[in-house]
TrEMBL record:
Transmembrane domains' residue ranges: 24-42, 54-71, 83-104, 155-178, 184-205, 217-246, 266-287, 299-327, 347-367, 379-403
Organism: Micromonospora solifontis
Organism lineage string: Bacteria, Bacillati, Actinomycetota, Actinomycetes, Micromonosporales
Highest rank taxon of the organism: Bacteria
Record protein name field: Na+/H+ antiporter
Cation/H+ exchanger transmembrane domain location: 12-403
InterPro entries given in the database record: Cation/H_exchanger_CPA1, Cation/H_exchanger_CPA1_bac, Cation/H_exchanger_TM
Chief location category: membrane
Family that this chain belongs to: Belongs to the monovalent cation:proton antiporter 1 (CPA1) transporter (TC 2.A.36) family.
Length: 526
């Protein structure tokens, strides 16, 4: 009961923090980390120690899965080159740079375990990247690259971490090239195979499930089932979850009914909100635990921390500019994808926030090395924690200002509206043709009403091209219809209260009115 009470309290604090962040116009991950840091010093706050297995198997999979579900597969495929350069190349480069810096600063500590810490701090966080990038309003392609990087980079880092730990704890401190190659092939290749199998199996189950509630429950099971299957064969659970999420998300319109998609979308929004808030709050709450056994001299601690932070931040820029512009020396690449403005790699470079995966990986570092040899493990955990806090708070808080200062060209809303209107007109034409095929025998009033509905949707799409200077007919319709809905709700509520209708009638009426109002609000957002 006590553990359950603590979870509920932390969820309540995370919800309050997220609400406060929205009210103040701040980024929720940053405020929650700072809130956790402050709470960690209060004596009445329960002692919290993150279990790395809970994070990597219990929290990360659903967050990765929902992010992959919402990721556009065509956009991911179109940006695969920059995504892999960041998610694989940059992670490996950062790990080796940080590992080398740490090895030079800590003579006597084996290079393998220094490399392990490099792998720990190398991957930017999936949750932080998505939350911050979308809140800042970065151009769509940059958001796609950052989200794609954050979906894949954890797998690269965790495989490299596994290899480095194996080398550090093996007798003689050496792991052969064949061992490394086998680990990479099993982790990456096995993860892809398990992920594809997950698409086939759960895609089939989703298609066969007609009940929206059961479809929702199945969706919750998917990420955990895929992770457990991947871990069983020592493959990468991260890769498996991402592959399954991308596949299911891409095929979702063909696999689920409209009711299932609506309910699943609302369900995952809630899960994502609660888990993200809890994760960032728990990261901040770790401060007391991290500091407890830290016994390094202050001057030495500050020097090593600053050096590692500098290595983490600078290597991203050192990698990004050659990766961005050297590839354009190839004529085929340059023709297909012209070189972007220097502002793009600058903002991507500043968006390297670390998060809970880094802390969980640090807590998973071995207690001792080969032959029981000791190493400064608590210092390593502190360095990982410092990287998380500094990158998330400093870079995350200043990313909006950096984006504004660089004046990145936003996505063209007129072009988006024009494309949407053209496709909507094509869709309306298909709907009218289908209606004419099936209209025979139906009441004329019903057919005319459906024709009017199709025309109104086409008009709405073209009205969005007119700008926001005046209220469009569709906006006026939405405003007035919402007031009418409120009046209808009041009548049904009064009838229920007076006993004229049972509760079930009220629930059905409210459901229909709520769905209509929800649709109106979505149309207002465009």
């Amino acid at each position: 009961m006590e553990a359950l009470f603590e979870v509920v309290v932390f969820l309540a604090i995370a919800t309050f923090g997220a609400a406060l962040a929205r009210r103040l116009g701040l980024l929720a991950p940053i405020l929650l980390v700072v809130l956790g840091l402050g709470l960690s010093f209060l004596p009445f706050v329960p002692h919290v120690r993150l279990d790395p297995n809970l994070v990597l198997v219990g929290i990360l999979p659903p967050l990765l899965y929902v992010a992959a579900l919402k990721t556009s597969v065509p956009a991911f495929r179109l940006n695969l080159r920059p995504i892999l350069l960041l998610a694989v190349g940059l992670v490996i480069f950062t790990a080796f740079v940080v590992g080398t810096v740490l090895y030079l600063l800590l003579p006597g500590v084996p290079y393998a375990i220094c490399l392990a810490l490099g792998a720990v701090v190398a991957p930017p966080d999936a949750v932080a990247a998505t939350a911050v990038a979308r809140k800042v309003g970065l151009p769509r392609r940059i958001v796609t690259i950052l989200e794609g990087e954050s979906l894949v980079n954890d797998a690269t880092a965790l495989v490299l971490l596994r290899v480095a730990i194996a080398a550090a704890t093996a007798t003689g401190g050496h792991v052969g090239f064949g061992d490394v190659a086998r680990e990479v092939v099993v982790a990456a290749g096995g993860g892809i195979l398990v992920g594809l199998l997950g698409v086939v199996v759960f895609g089939y189950l989703h298609k066969r499930t007609t009940d929206a509630v059961l479809d929702n429950a199945l969706s919750l099971i998917v990420p955990f089932a895929v992770v457990f299957a991947a871990e069983e064969i020592h493959a990468s659970g991260v890769v498996a979850v991402v592959v399954t999420g991308l596949g299911i998300g891409h095929k979702q319109p063909l696999l689920m009914s409209a009711a299932s998609r609506l309910q699943t979308s609302a369900f995952w929004k809630l899960i994502q909100f609660l888990l993200e808030g809890l994760v960032f709050l728990l990261v901040g709450l770790q401060l007391r635990e991290v500091l407890r056994d830290l016994d390094e001299p202050l001057g030495r601690l500050v020097g090593i921390t600053v050096a590692v932070l500098a290595a983490v931040v600078l290597t991203r820029f050192v990698w990004l500019f050659p990766a961005t512009y050297l590839a354009r020396l190839v004529p085929r690449v340059r023709q297909r994808d012209p070189a972007p403005s220097v502002r793009a790699p600058l903002v991507i470079g500043w968006a390297g926030m670390r998060g809970v995966v880094t802390l969980a990986a640090a807590l998973a570092l071995p207690l001792t090395l080969a032959d029981g040899r000791a190493y400064p493990r608590q210092l390593f955990i502190w360095l990982a924690f410092a990287v998380i806090v500094v990158t998330l708070v400093a870079q995350g808080a200043t990313l909006p200002a950096v984006a504004r200062a660089l004046k990145l060209p936003p996505d063209d809303p007129v072009q988006d509206a024009l494309s949407a209107a053209a496709v909507q007109q094509q869709a309306s034409r298909a709907a009218r043709e289908r209606l004419e095929e099936l209209a025979e025998g139906a009441p004329d009033a019903v057919v005319e009403r459906l024709r009017g509905l199709v025309q109104s949707r086409t008009n709405l799409a073209w009205e969005r091209l007119g700008g926001a200077e005046r209220e469009t007919p569709s906006q006026a319709y939405g405003r007035l219809r919402r007031e009418m809905i409120d009046a209808e709700r009041e009548v049904f509520r009064a009838a229920r209260d007076s006993g004229r209708i049972p509760e079930e009638v009220l629930v059905r009426a409210y459901r229909d009115l709520d769905l209509e109002e929800s649709l109106l609000r979505q149309e207002d957002k465009g």
